[in-house]
Amino acid sequence: MYFYTDWDSPVGTDPDVMAQVTDHFGADSDEATTMRFLLRFREIYGPNIPLGAVGQLEFLLDETDLLTQLSPTPDVIDNADTRDSVHSLHAHGMLLIADDGSLWMTFPPGTPHSAQGGAWSFVEQKVKAPAEQVGADT
Q1: Whole-angstrom distance, CA of residue 103 vs CA of residue 57
Q2: Alpha-carbon distance 23 to 39, whole Å?
Q3: I need a labelling partner for 124 at 20 to 30 A (CA). Which of 69, 73, 90, 99 fits?
């Protein structure tokens, strides 16, 4: 399973894109909700959104204790700022989704701590993909 093969690039400004979607499907439609998520991710990832990786990261944030581990206080269970920070680290290549669906802390190519020859350096597995998901894909 490869999480970086399907990319989306919404074309146009955020208000123009939303206007097109709401005109065609309605403001309360599932399509409008999906587009709001894509535009939110465009703010974090830039014009190209890795849909599979973003979806897997959202799954890991929802189905593991990663968000709780990273939250600024123990009583925060679903902090939007923490969630966005994790996505920002992912967008900058500091976190990557491996082919098995696990989340790894990484050093991007060409950085002082990257692997020999300037390749990706996978440093530490932060979250293993839940067994039921891994079993479903193998």
Answers
A1: 8
A2: 17
A3: 73
